[in-house]
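Weekly structure sync, notes
Attendees: PL, DS, HV (note-taker this week)

Item 1: Phytoene desaturase
DS walked through the input record. Source organism listed as Natrinema salifodinae. Sequence as pasted into the shared doc:
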Amino acid sequence: MQSLVGESIAVIGSGIGGLSTACYLADAGADVHVIEKNEQVGGRASRLEKDGFRFDMGPSWYLMPDVFERFFADFDRTPSDYYDLTHLDPHYRIFFKDSAERSSADDASGQRPRAHGDRVDVTPDLERTKAVFEEYEDGAGEALERYLAKSRENYEVGMEHFVYEDRTRLRDYLDLDVARQARGLSLLGSMQGHVEDYFDHPKLQQIMQYTLVFLGGSPSNTPALYNLMSHVDFNLGVWYPDGGIAAVVDAIAEVGSELGVTYDTDRPATAIKGREGAFVVETPDGPLRTDLVVSNADYAHTEQELLPPEQRGYDADYWEKRTYAPSAFLLYLGVEGDVDELAHHSLVLPTDWGEHFEQIFEDPQWPDDPAYYVCVPSETDDDVAPDGHSALFVLVPIAPGLEDTPEIRDRYRDEVLADIADHTGTDLRDRIVLEERFCVEDFANRYNSYDGTALGLAHTLRQTALFRPPHRSKAVDGLYFAGGDTTPGIGVPMCLISGELTAEKVLEDRG
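Item 1 (cont.): predicted structure, written out as tokens:
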């Protein structure tokens, strides 16, 4: 039933959360107008195209396919109406730095000595993965099976009762039915402690914890509940949408267009004024008058920059005391030839990544021995690079708010490329034909992100579920929020769901 007919709604920002909200509101009959400060829709899921190369600038993992299927089904559509999926094999490859050794002489080809590091492929074949775990630790294969059973339980209960149902008040958790559903969930404790209950070998612990990067946390500050991400990884699988995540953005935006949503790019919001039923969103192209406003812009930016002080739900001190997910140092590279040592998704992990996390969350500085991620979409998609070339990007998680100068970027770029050569056997340095960089200042300038965080608020225990900022403004009737800073949180699937939850709030209030 279309219960918002006659309502005009402005959505500020076209990230995944904003695009999703727009679809649900338009489907309910509202006249929805999305404005976006940048030249393309997608928010942090932007695309970079240059000289025949194409890159996803932000998210690059297609996880939780069930969430996408549910979203499109809500509008009597399927993902396959818009894009095709490839199940990646391997899901990802891990290079452990500690086992890297150098030969004392050049190899037969006369090239520089190559590293021979300890390498693990995580594949769709669970029995094969269990066998790999057994090689590191007796009984680890069976432990993996038990771990994934718990992860599946957390995922199924958590998604149905705590993700798709937005419980924003403490009393929502005191309900007997909620307590029954929550029984047995890994609600307390850290991921580090939870993983240690199953595996002793540090490398196996790292494999089970790497997904914390997607949540913007560390093993010590992320609740054990998020072991559900291992079900996402091992059981639901890692996929690639043809055309990358940008193709998913295009699909969601197209659904919106089909439902009547209009989009304005290169139109930033500079202020939100007025009240419910009579809002004015100021832009350089003139005011946009609307009944309701949904902000998919950075939550802190919206409150601190777009609203007057008397209409802010939180003061500056609140935002200063939050724990933020990392920023990132990114290299987008077009290179000659193949990079066969690398998989579509590759992770390079130091022996002790605790120090890297400390240099993000405890003692912010550029990491001395970083853990990082390399994405090579050209391993799967021939259309993202010219013939005879590879397209890849490198992402190093770093602390938000770090000093970010051209000189620092130059130095760190050289260190990272040398590290890739040393620990994966892939030397890119003499083959680069295209190079673009993105870092703290770019996140702050392009996305108005607080301190240049790449993701927003981290998923610490005190910033999970009802402890995240709400979808409804605390101070302004008719103003709503969507995106990763709200519930359910960080990541493309979660932001897609946040749009549904935001629309539900609008419908409860106005429908």
